Amino acid sequence: MATMAPGRGSSRKLTCEECFFRRHGLCAIAGSEPCATFRPDGPQGLRPPEQLRFTFRQERRTRAAWAFPTAQDQAARHAVGA
Questions:
Q1: Helix segments in the chain, DSSP class H
Q2: Which of these, 45, 41, 44, 47, lies nearest to 23 by C-alpha position?
Q3: Model's pTM, two decimal places?
Q4: How far apart are CA 14 and CA 11, in angstroms?
Q5: Mean pLDDT of the chain
């Protein structure tokens, strides 16, 4: 007894008769319960589920958060300890 995922429309029970494969005579599974291959049959036919759109973030930083010390900084650092 499968139900639709939360947040995806109503919570009515799905039936095998609503499956694309059953309605088009392509189902090879005996039984009346929706199976793991259940795909809803709609006017557009069999189509993949909607995917999230990927959007790029705008680059906020204009310079690196860290940087290697310059040669002069390194020389000054080591000269103090000598």
A1: 20-23, 71-81
A2: 41
A3: 0.45
A4: 9
A5: 78
Which residues are within 8 A (CB) of 33 and not within 5 positions of it... i.e. 6 or more apart? Answer: 1, 2, 16
For the segment 68-77, the average pLDDT, to the nearest whole number, is 87
Asked whether residue 74 is assigned to any structural domain, the reply reads: no
Report residue 48's pLDDT band, with 50, 70 and 90 as the boundaries: confident
In this structure, are residues 76 and 56 in contact, taking their beta carbons and an 8 Å threshold?
no
Residue 51 lies in a domain: no
Residue 79's pLDDT is what? Answer: 84
Number of domains forming the structure of the chain: 1
User: Residue 54's CB: how many other CB atoms inside 10 A?
Assistant: 5
Segments forming the whole domain that contains residue 10: 1-44
Of the candidates 19, 54, 47, the residue with the CA atom closest to the CA atom of residue 33? 19
Please, are residues 38 and 19 in contact by the beta-carbon 8 Å criterion? yes
